[in-house]
Amino acid sequence: MDDTLLLPTVAAVALILGLVAGWAVQSATVRRRLTREQGFFGLPAGSECVLVTHRDSTSAHWSIPRHDALALLGLAAVIENCGAHPEVAPHDTGLQGFGARTEFCVGDPTAHRRLAAHLANLLPGVAVHPGDESGAGRGTFTIGGSAYRMEPGAVEYVLLARLTAGEGGRPVFLAAGQRPVTHRAAVRHLVRNRARLARKHGVDGQFCLLLKVVNSQAYGPDVVELVADVTKSALTAAEPKGPRAAA
User: 138 pLDDT band (50/70/90 cuts)?
Assistant: First the structure.
């Protein structure tokens, strides 16, 4: 072959091989990332999951509070990316136990029956104050002896958890907050930080994070701070108060 044709031919072949290799590496990276995401959310392709929310008490018909609806939309994008199929169910509808399929439970634990049951069974170290007759103190979290009371519009708290229990091993994700805006903030934190959370806690790990939503009156769900990783305290049943029994 003429030298004038050999060099361009070699360069073209090298370019094609480089492009093919780059495409293969990128495709493998995307597949690994998707596999990790499917494992973290418990959503293999073709699987089913359920999103459980409560009804809007201000509406005469079955509807979802605005911030809760937007939180579910954020989860829907992740579910679609994993190739799974979602079902939306109200909190007071009889559902099967947990573990058979991934569950996303979003809402206020003082009004959301399913969420309250999950907290009692899976996070026995968390207490949620129902409020007194006037409603004061409603939604206050007590974890590890510390109380977290909201100041509406200024400081509000939400628990974000990934838990595994029951048969089947599929996780239950909880976004349990003091106001609907906090539920949306927790779901945003989960979606945006899913890779970091999977690295820190493991693809199959459990965690319970206490988040603080700051000045939601001005910033909505956008300003979120991690208060603490309360996994150990939340998973451990609180010791009953009162005098100890005599030895």
Answer: confident
Reference 161, options 124, 210, 228, 227; nearest CA is: 210
Q: Is the pLDDT of residue 137 over 50?
A: yes
Contact 172, 165 (CB under 8 A): yes
Residues in the chain: 247
Task: Tell me the per-residue pLDDT of 13-41, one tens digit each, with 9 for 90 and over.
Answer: 666 666 665 655 555 555 678 889 999 99
What secondary structure does DSSP assign to 87-152, as a single string?
EEEETTS----SSSSEEEEEE-TTT-HHHHHHHHHH-TTEEE----TT-TTTT-EEETTEEE--BT
d(CA 227, CA 243): 32
Note the pTM of the prediction, 2 decimals.
0.82
Q: Is the alpha carbon torsion for 185, 189, 173, 125 positive or negative? A: negative
Q: Is the CB of residue 159 less than 8 Å from the CB of residue 176?
A: yes
Q: Is 114 left (phi over 0), alpha (psi -120 to 50) or beta?
A: alpha
Exposed, middle or buried: residue 189 (CB in 10 Å: 0-12, 13-18, 19+)?
A: buried
